[in-house]
Amino acid sequence: MTAEAASAVSIGPVRGALIVLLVAVGVAFLVVGTVGLLRLPDVYNRMHATSKATTLGAASIALAAFVFYGPGGDGLIGLVTVVFLFVTAPTGAHMISQAAHRMGVGFYGGVEWPGEGGGERAEEVGQDGSETGSASPGDD
Q1: In the structure, what pLDDT confidence band is assigned to residue 1 with cuts at 50, 70 and 90?
Q2: Neighbours of 78 (CB within 10 A)
Q3: CA-CA distance, 64 to 29, in Å (whole number)?
Q4: Which of 29, 36, 116, 129 satisfies CB 3.0 to 4.6 Å to 56 for a cystine?
């Protein structure tokens, strides 16, 4: 959209307040995601913070663009951006976590990858795969 066309867009007080609210919510989520990226201890935790918070933050700002420009033209681009973010961000985070796991990046605090010999399920299954352990008498 050109500068002349952008200046021709008129917004009412309710629409303006909604735009301001969406941008404020987006900025808040982006700040939380950035703080999570800087403060959390390992790649998995950082990825969690950035994928969730920044997706919601960027989507909120794209929704503000949709509200500002309306349903056609640049507003449609904002709406497509929201859909694209919600499809690609979880997929990207999943791929990054799989790659980190394959590279041997460990979890913070002794947590183990789900299904790899850790946790209480591994204690219940014996070497031959039979159930052992904490079953109470009479459960047969």
Answers
A1: low
A2: 21
A3: 14
A4: 29
Domain boundaries, the chain: 13-103
- The pTM (predicted TM-score) of the whole model is 0.68
pLDDT digits 0-9 by tens, 69-95? 988 888 899 999 999 999 999 899 999
Q: In 3D, which of 25, 99, 94 has the Cα closest to residue 56?
A: 25
Burial of 53 (0-12, 13-18, 19+ CB in 10 A): buried
- Give the Cα separation of 124 and 51 in Å (integer): 34
As given in the structure block, the two tokens for residue 85 are 């973010």
DSSP assignment of 21-36 = HHHHHHHHHHHHHHHH
Q: How many Å from the N-terminal Cα to the C-terminal Cα in the chain?
A: 71
